Amino acid sequence: MSNAKALPVPPSGAAADWTIPQDWRRYTPAEHAMWDTLFERQSKMLAGRVSPTFLQGLDVLRMSKPGIPDFDELSERLHKLTGWTVVAVPGLVPDEDFFRHLANRTFVAGRFIRTPEQTDYLKEPDIFHDVFGHVPLLANPVFADYMQAYGEGGLRSLGLGAIHRLARLYWYTVEFGLIREDGDLRLYGAGIVSSYGESIFALDDPSPHRIRLDLKRAMRTRYEIDDYQRTYFVIDSYEDLLRQTLETDFAPLYAELNACADLPVDAILPEDDVITRGTQAYAGAMVAAPKIKSAPPIEAHL
Ligand code: PHE
Ligand code: FE
Q1: Is 164 a catalytic residue?
Q2: Which position among 51, 175, 195, 209 bears the catalytic label?
């Protein structure tokens, strides 16, 4: 959950920092059942595909408990592990507020859950995307530090006019990242792990490119918000992601990037460390037969 096109001031009922009570008692049995359906389907799908760190997070946070998680209970566990808390917001929040929350180790989440008709796709991130997708990795101390550093970097990027660069890094790591662990590619991005279709596509489909993450390369690359990604970036480890982002001063990178053209979603550069060169057949089929696209398969995020 975050940013883009948000109102400049919090709606009535929200605090100055945009948070609202989760009102956990107001969820209906049907809403809890929707969570359970999604949880069960996704947990099965992710076995053997997701980063073990994600599964450890689900486990230590006791997220398999039936029903929509109560943020107070979840935050109590999470805070003991990494100092993060989860709070509810009414919808998209302005960039600056989103970054400030991350910098303070607060993860803002939508409190509504999708309807059964939206089981496979919805445009706005709901509580399943935000909580199932994002929160398990926040139980990992390294990833928890990365998210905080990202928030601090985001606040800095506002003053440097580079927020869209940093948004791309979030997209290609936090939302759609892959990781290579013990020689195998695994999922970790929240936009993938909360999506039934994309959890297969991102790992197994011959269509997308899979390229080793380079910070500058990712920040040059456009992204698609309403379909599967054409390119996924792969990290070596969470430690490496954190180290690279902390050790790199982004200000000169932003300046260099202003002199480079943006890259299309399916670009391959000579200097890329390509893990899989995709056929891009999926995207090609969309152009040839656009009606297939009537039910866009991924969830919206960032
Ligand atoms: N090191 C980055 C900067 O100089 C901050 C940052 C940290 C950005 C982690 C993203 C992730 O702005
Ligand atoms: Fe998200």
Answers
A1: no
A2: 175
